[in-house]
Amino acid sequence: MLARLKKLFEIKGYRLFVICMLMIGIGISITTPYLALYFTEDSGMTTGAFGVFMAVSSLSGILVNTLIAKSSDSGLDRKWILIAAMLSSALVYAAYLTFDNFFILLIVVSILSGFGAASIPQIYAYAQESANESNPTTKR
Question: Mean of the pLDDT values across residues 51-73?
Answer without folding.
Answer: 86
